[in-house]
Amino acid sequence: MGKFQIEQCGQIEGLYLIQPTVFGDNRGYFMETYNYNEFKELGLDMVFVQDNQSKSTKGVLRGMHYQKEHTQGKLVRVISGKVYDVVVDIRKDSKTYGQWYGATLSAEEKNMMYVPEGFAHGFYVLSDTAEFLYKCTDFYDPSSEAGIMWNDPTIRIDWPIPEGETPIISEKDTKHPNFSSTIYL
Question: Is the pTM of this model over 0.85?
């Protein structure tokens, strides 16, 4: 048995949910969260050059982010708490262009998502706090950062925001354009 189980996310090519094998006993647990050779055997042949970590409180929505140049593939996971993780396919020539996919990632489940280059990415925090890790295939480039409005009426992401609540969003994220005026990859 391999150390990782992967599942393609819906019809979106290149987007995968990944479940590591967890070895546990009365002392706790151990798991590999990335292994180049194991990932390559599964068809995920990427090299990561930068790791990022964020901590957010319940109700925070971060996204939908991407880079116009120096596009980043991301292996994302939650090490504390739970989030609803969302991606939008912005690859012009993709069969699933403009489609979104969302999945709950949690420290308890230890699941991960691989988001290939060409996607806008964001998440909504479901737990009191959440710590989120990103392994990236290219470096952050502030001159290339861009985004799509989180509540774009064309994409219609079904965020699990409780009725009557407003997500906590950074000022920068409130200024993203709608999908129709986004620069696509």
Answer: yes
Which residues are known catalytic residues?
65, 134
Q: What own/partner pairs with CB < 8 Å and gap ≥ 24 does 91-98 have? A: 91/118, 91/119, 91/184, 91/185, 92/184, 92/185, 94/13, 94/118, 95/11, 95/13, 96/10, 96/11, 96/12, 96/13, 97/184, 98/154, 98/155, 98/179
Kindly provide the residue ranges of all beta strands, DSSP E only, lying in the chain, ordered along the sequence: 4-8, 16-20, 23-25, 28-30, 50-57, 61-67, 74-80, 82-89, 100-106, 112-115, 119-125, 129-136, 145-147
pLDDT one digit per residue (tens) for the chain, 185 residues: 579 999 999 899 999 999 999 999 999 999 999 999 999 999 999 999 999 999 999 999 999 999 999 999 999 999 999 999 999 999 999 999 999 999 999 999 999 999 999 999 999 999 999 999 999 999 999 999 999 999 999 999 999 999 999 999 999 999 999 998 766 66
